[in-house]
Amino acid sequence: VTDYAIFLLDRTGHVTSWNSGAQRIKQYTADEIMGKHFSNFYTPEDREKGMPQYVLKQAEEHGHWQGEGWRVRKDGSKFWSSVVVTALRDEEGQLTGFSKVTRDITDRKELLDKLHRHMAELERQVEERERTNAELEAFSYSVSHDLRAPLRAIEGFASALKEDYGSQLDETAHDYLHEIISASTRMNRLVRDLLEYGRLSRIEIIPQTVAVRPLVRQLLHEGPAEYKTATLTGDKDSSVLAHESTLAQVVMNLISNAFKFHAIGVAPQVEINVENTGRGLVRIAVKDCGIGISPEHQEKIFKIFERLHGFNEYPGTGIGLAIVKRGIERMGGKVGVESQPGKGSTFWVELPSSLEKGI
Ligand code: ADP
Questions:
Q1: Rounded Cα distance, 201 and 236, in Å
Q2: What single-letter DSSP state applies at residue 42?
Q3: pTM
Q4: How close is the Cα of 301 to the center of ligand 1, in Å?
């Protein structure tokens, strides 16, 4: 056996037999080491700590001792070893010595150390990124928040100007005023959506059972008149584990997009389907027959501020789908889209079914 150093010690730890594996790993020939104390194989620090004596005592008390640690070769170089020491007893049960099996696992140790170092580095990077994200979010939250007061003043004074001095203004001044009011309305929407997006990462999400169809029906009822034309299909009794107001916001964003992104002059057709997928998940799909999205854009539209059209063509902030993605992911679900340009889109979200709770 050359992969293992196998040797015997007497009761006090002196070497009494030596195999070729021991010679290969520790570099001593049998002649050199026989009769010497096995503490020679330990580092000076371990010797000082009384490690060799401790190992023998443990093996004597418990039958054997097993461990890993640095050991020293004859030339002073170190290797990481895996060691088993077993107490040997005669027929009367008297301790006669010990057998020791040592393996050089330096390669494994180096690999493991490397892995641990990589893991620690990864954890550090994740922590740093999380901290930066949290700082950025706190910053954008406070900026958005602080933008509100001056914005209200702009809106208020522009409206006052229109009401109180409208009759004294010519057509061009009215146009300018209109631009001011519509730009500040747009900014208001942007600030509101940004605050909402930031809020979504901070709020505590405690999932509760939410019946899906009643929620969708209520959203359609509360929305603009055209929402009443949407059809609701699929499982009647599906319920999900979700944070109700976040789910409502997610579905509302999808519905409002489905009604928004259609060609001029074409009446939107929207269908909302609720299905149990059979894998413990419920899928809510919002289908439209609108302008569709080409495949290369289907991933990026879920990122904040990504829009495929100008504001004048289709108004919006580019935050809606980012809210959908973050909201659903915080509730442990998934989002996706299937779409063909000119043929319409189906945006879907999947959440755990409440019926699967505890399984
Ligand atoms: P917003 O609607 O405010 O522009 P979103 O984040 O909700 O922002 O959507 C991002 C972009 O994704 C939209 O600007 C649009 O280009 C595209 N999009 C979203 N929903 C649809 C849809 N149902 N049909 C076609 N394009 C869509």
A1: 31
A2: B
A3: 0.67
A4: 7
